[in-house]
Amino acid sequence: MKKVLIINGPNLNMLGKRQEDIYGSKSFDDVYSDLQKYSSGKNIELFYFQSNIEGEIVNKIQDSMGKIDNIIINPGALTHYSYSIHDALTAVKIPAIEVHISNIFTREEWRQKSVISPAVIGIISGLGISVYKLALIFITEFYSKK
After folding, report:
1. What is the pTM of this model?
2. Which tens digit of pLDDT belongs to each residue from 118-132?
3. CATH number of the structural domain spanning residue 42
4. Active-site residue set
5. Which H helix or E strand runs over 2?
6. In terms of Cα–Cα distance, which of 107, 109, 37, 115 is closest to 75?
7. Which of these ranges, 35-44, 64-73, 76-85, 110-119, has the smallest mean pLDDT?
8. Contact, 13 vs 48, CB < 8 A?
């Protein structure tokens, strides 16, 4: 069974409560429930972690080494400056996909750069809350670790 960890960074615990025009009205609990239903039929064991604290995210990535097959990560605002998350992803060598609910490339200039992207196999951005499922579909149907 393939093990996939979803990591959400700062403020993503507020999904469904903040800026619904950008992030939608669904809570992540609702999204995660849908993802679990999808993954149960695909031989995937799904795990979830959210933190507003950068160091906790780094610790979770490091603790996943040898235990997790893939990571789906939405680093939130840490996308733009967290070299420690970049370095953790690089160090553990777990294939990861970076996701963003909004299109970071059409937002404020400071949001348009990701320091995480060089450490992941791909990025899905701007397709709303479906980015998580799209990443999971890619992992289950198209990606095989080389």
Report:
1. 0.90
2. 999 999 999 999 999
3. 3.40.50.9100
4. 23, 100
5. strand 2-8
6. 115
7. 110-119
8. no
